[in-house]
Amino acid sequence: MDVGKLLLVATPIGNLGDITLRALEALREADVVAAEDTRRTVKLLNHYAIKNKLVSFHEYSREARFEEILGLLAVGKKVALVSDAGTPVISDPGYELVRRCIEKGIEVESIPGACAAVTAVTLSGMDCSRFLFWGFLSPKQAARRRELEEIQEKGIPCVVYESPNRILKLLADVCDICGAETRVCVCRELTKLHEESLRMTAGEARAELGGREAIKGEFVVVIDPQPAETEKLSEQRIAQEVEKRLQSGMTKKSAAAEVAKEYGLPKNRVYGIALGSGKRE
Fold first, then answer.
1. What is the Cα–Cα distance from 207 to 209, expressed in whole angstroms?
2. CATH for 5-114?
3. Distance CA 240, CA 182 (A)
4. What is the gyration radius of the CA atoms in the chain, in angstroms?
5. Roughly what angle, to the nearest 10 degrees, separates helices 63-74 and 94-103?
6. Torsions phi, psi of 185, nearest 5?
7. What are the protein's UniProt keywords (predicted)?
8. pLDDT tens profile 206-262
9. What is the DSSP letter of 232?
10. Is 56 helix (H, G, I), strand (E, B) or coil?
11. What's the rounded Cα separation, in Å, for the pair 37 and 206?
C-alpha cells in the first residue's frame, strides 16, 4: 500500500480571498484536515464549500493524536495541516509532526501562501534584504528584555508577533532596550477591514497606541535596531565609565545598567566588562 502525504497548507491571515488555487485543491483532496483551531478552520472550509473530516492538532495535542495522524498517513491517506492563519509550522507546533513524518519516510509537501511576517516586512519600508524572524517574545518581562538585547546586538530588522494585551509592554521594553528613537512598523489586523501600519519610532508608537481607549487585533511588529555609533566604544573606555560609577558607590549591576542606557550599549556586554572592574558587587 502506498504511503500517504502530509500537506502543509498556507491559509489566509485575514482576508479569505487570499487563499491560493493550490491550497483549495489540496484541502479538497485531503482525507483529513488537521487544524490548530477547528473553529476558525471550519469557517474557511464552509466558505469554499469544502466538506471533509476535520480534527484538532495544536500544541496541547496528546501523543494519541500524533499516532492517529501518522497512522492515517501510513495507510495512504492525505492529511492537510493548517494553522490558525498563514503558513503552518511558523510559530506553531506543526514542526514536530513534520519531523516525525521525515523520520518515517512519509512525504511532506508545502503549499505556499500567506505569511504575516513577510507581509509586515513588505509594508515596513525598511531594508529587509536580511531580517530576523523571532515569533512571539517571552510574556515574562525579564526574559523578553534579554531577547530584545539579543535583537539589538544583531543590528538587522526583526519581526515579532504580539497580542493586544502585551503590545504596550513590548513597545516600552523596545524603548528601554533599543532606544525610543528605534524605527518600528507596527502592523495590526493585516489584510482585514481595519488593517493599519504605524511606521514611526518605538516611542511614538507607544504613545499612539497608549492614547487609545482600547487596543484590538493581533500585531506584527518589525523592529529596526540600528547599532549606535557609541557601540564602537572600546572596552577600556567602557570599563572607565563603569569604574567612575563604582567609585561613586554604585553596584556593578547598577553601574553597568547606567552606562548601557547612557551610551546605547547592550546591557549584557557592559555587565560582562563590569565584572572585571573594581570590587563592589
1. 6
2. 3.40.1010.10
3. 27
4. 23
5. 50
6. -125, 110
7. Cytoplasm, Methyltransferase, rRNA processing, S-adenosyl-L-methionine, Transferase
8. 999 999 999 999 999 999 997 655 456 788 888 888 998 889 989 988 988 888 877
9. G
10. strand
11. 31
Residues 6+ apart with CB under 8 A from 61: 93
Say how many CA atoms lie within 13 Å of 94 toward its Cβ.
Answer: 27
- Does 117-227 carry CATH code 3.30.1380.20? no
E strand residue ranges, 176-258: 183-188, 196-201, 219-224
What is the C-alpha separation between 268 and 47, in angstroms, rounded? Answer: 51
- Single-letter amino acid code for the residue at 113: G
Rounded to two decimals, what is the model's pTM? 0.79
Taking the mean position of all CA atoms in its chain, how far away is CA 274? Answer: 32
Rounded to the nearest 10 degrees, the angle between the axes of helix 141-154 and helix 167-177 is 50
**252-263 vs 235-247: helix crossing angle, rounded to 10:** 130
Question: Across the strands, what pairs with 228?
Answer: none
CA angle 169, 14, 191 (to 5 degrees): 80
